[in-house]
């Protein structure tokens, strides 16, 4: 078991970083990894229903990405950008923790106007890691205004413009709150989900609002020294019941994405899985003992990232890096709009 961050490097040609989504969501390739033996098979995501079993439980994250990138003008002149990260609203006051650019000019007391004045913000103070706390005012409902004025906060490695914002949402997204998509879910279509359900698989929902910390590299030399970002998570009682029923029937709990993995393992931290709501900072890396998961559907992750460490914990670093090498050799597409992996 390695604790050195540098041991989670791998070589990735830049041309394999997917810049745009495929025409068909379920047209992605699917690398199937036996997490215990390291054996690899190459398949297609559209064949996922054949790889699941009756009585399995597929758990998905229904969080919806906010069009959280706001381009505005500072009072006194000058363009600026606020990227909404965490909702800090209380008692009817709209307040968000934001990334601010240019940071030096967006000091407490500075006001910003968006659109034709439909939305304004005042910088009230500082958050963590150089972020800003901004108080917003708008004449119309906030989320409607955000839909009209905001842009999708695509990851920094995607350089091309997204033609259809819905392609950075899952087809089952419901609760707004994420600053990044739970990308493993982007491969599903309504037809594919129906086929999975028709085959006797239970589909259960949770919500974890993804923060931009998911893209933050691990800067510590030792993995255990990394401070994990916090994300808000909600586990409904009906999902707990579905998981318990699945266990009783001998089925497997399969998470759609690392966000679902973190959520389920966080709520089982004390032993028994219990419904509730929390902010989780759980950092899963090799040495972690899983309490809930039997399988994981995930995309391919950045080198030296917390997500690469998570999938390594679910299998092994050696098996994951070997699978990634095969994916590179086979020219799989990587990261948010890329291909997928089923670990089972």
Summarize the structure.
The chain is an alpha/beta fold and 344 residues long. It has seven helices and 17 strands.
Structure description:
By secondary structure, the protein is of the alpha/beta class. The protein folds into 2 domains: 5-65 and 164-343, 3-Layer(aba) Sandwich (QueA-like), CATH 3.40.1780; 69-149, QueA-like (Thrombin, subunit H, Beta Barrel). The protein is 19% helix and 27% strand. It has helices spanning 48-51, 142-149, 190-198, 237-248, 258-267, 306-314, 317-329; strands spanning 29-33, 40-44, 57-61, 63-65, 69-74, 79-87, 94-101, 111-114, 119-126, 132-138, 175-178, 202-208, 231-235, 253-256, 276-280, 295-299, 340-343. Strand 8 and strand 9 form a beta hairpin. Helix 6 crosses helix 7 (317-329). The mean pLDDT is 95.
Q: Kindly report the average pLDDT value.
A: 95
Largest sheet, in brief, is: 9 strands, mixed
Overall, the morphology is: globular
- What is the straight-line distance between the termini? 20 Å
Radius of gyration: 20 Å
Instruction: Tell me the count of domains.
Output: 2
User: Biggest sheet, strands in spatial order?
Assistant: 2-1-17-16-14-3-12-13-15
The SSE string, one letter per element, is EEHEEEEEEEEHEHEEHEHEEHHE
Helix content: 10-25%
Using the coordinates shown, work out and report the CATH topology of the largest domain: QueA-like
Contiguous low-pLDDT stretches (5 residues minimum) are none
Protein structure class: alpha/beta
> Helical segment tally?
7
Please count the beta strands (DSSP E, at least 2 residues each). 17
Which CATH class of the largest domain? Answer: Alpha Beta
């Amino acid at each position: 078991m390695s604790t050195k961050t540098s041991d989670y490097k791998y070589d990735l040609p830049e041309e394999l970083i997917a810049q745009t989504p495929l025409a068909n969501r379920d047209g992605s390739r699917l690398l199937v990894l036996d997490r215990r033996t390291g054996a690899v098979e190459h398949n297609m995501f559209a064949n996922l229903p054949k790889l699941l079993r009756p009585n399995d439980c597929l758990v998905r994250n229904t969080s919806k990405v906010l069009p959280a990138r706001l381009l505005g003008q500072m009072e006194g002149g000058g363009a600026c950008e606020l990227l909404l990260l965490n909702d800090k609203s209380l008692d009817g006051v709209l307040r968000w923790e934001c990334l601010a650019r240019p940071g030096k000019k967006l000091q407490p007391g500075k006001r910003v106007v968006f659109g034709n004045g439909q939305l304004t913000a005042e910088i009230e103070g500082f958050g963590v890691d150089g972020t800003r706390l901004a108080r917003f005012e708008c004449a119309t409902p906030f989320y409607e205004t955000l839909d009209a004025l905001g842009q999708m906060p695509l990851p920094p490695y995607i350089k091309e413009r997204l033609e259809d914002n819905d392609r950075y949402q899952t087809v089952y997204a419901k609760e707004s709150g994420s600053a990044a998509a739970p990308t493993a879910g982007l491969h599903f279509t309504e037809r594919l989900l129906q086929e999975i359900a028709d085959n006797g698989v239970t589909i259960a929902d949770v919500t974890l609002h993804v923060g931009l910390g998911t893209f933050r590299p691990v800067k510590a030399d030792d993995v255990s020294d990394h401070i994990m970002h916090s994300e808000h998570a909600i586990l409904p009682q009906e999902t707990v019941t579905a998981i318990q029923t699945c266990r009783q029937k001998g089925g497997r709990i399969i998470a759609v994405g690392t966000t679902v993995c973190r959520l389920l393992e966080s709520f089982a931290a004390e032993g028994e899985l219990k419904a509730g709501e929390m902010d989780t900072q759980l950092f899963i890396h090799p040495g972690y003992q899983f309490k809930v998961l039997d399988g994981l559907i995930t995309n391919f992750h950045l080198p030296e990232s917390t997500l690469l460490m998570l999938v390594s914990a679910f299998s092994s670093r050696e098996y994951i890096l070997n699978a990634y090498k095969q994916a590179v050799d086979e020219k799989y597409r990587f990261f948010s709009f890329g291909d997928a992996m089923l670990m089972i």
